Amino acid sequence: MALGGTIRGKKTVLRLPVEADLAAYNEWMADLRVRRAHSIWHEPAMPATWKERFKEIAKEKQTVLWSIETEGKLIGLAAGHVWGMGNGFDLSQLVIDPDEWRKGYGSDVALALHRYLFDYLDLRRSDLELRADNAAALRIADRLGYVEYARGHEAAYRDGAYVDQVRLLMEKETWHERWSAEREYGPLAAGATR
Length: 194
What we know:
It contains 6 helices and 8 strands. It is of the alpha+beta class.
């Protein structure tokens, strides 16, 4: 299975990261707005530490990391891995630079990424975990067709209170029902592989 490469949305492009992107990753992980909205993908660290993390993720065959850009400007990252013998994808990070929030980039990236996962890679399901008060991410997930299947009560503590953690799942059939008009890649013939 080929993971990675370039995925194009209407406003955004997911591309393989380069070393120059790592400074921005570090800044986002230190930004309190990102820390409040997401589980952090590694704590901010020295650039050498980020380079080592970058090398480690590159070695994992089922794991992928994309940098997200719009009009040539780096605005985010997405990370995840294939599981279940190539049947599913766990989206572990989708971070947009907080200075670029509310411009539709998160929705555009999510739609393009899921077109790739379901229509190109022909995966059966996608899974993600969100904090229950991340309204923007929950709206995007709901629009795509995710449903909640598990909830961790009071799983994260911040701002003087606890917040729930939710696990969401979308099956390929739901994707096709909801997004058949948005398909970039044609459906596979029975038994065919890409």
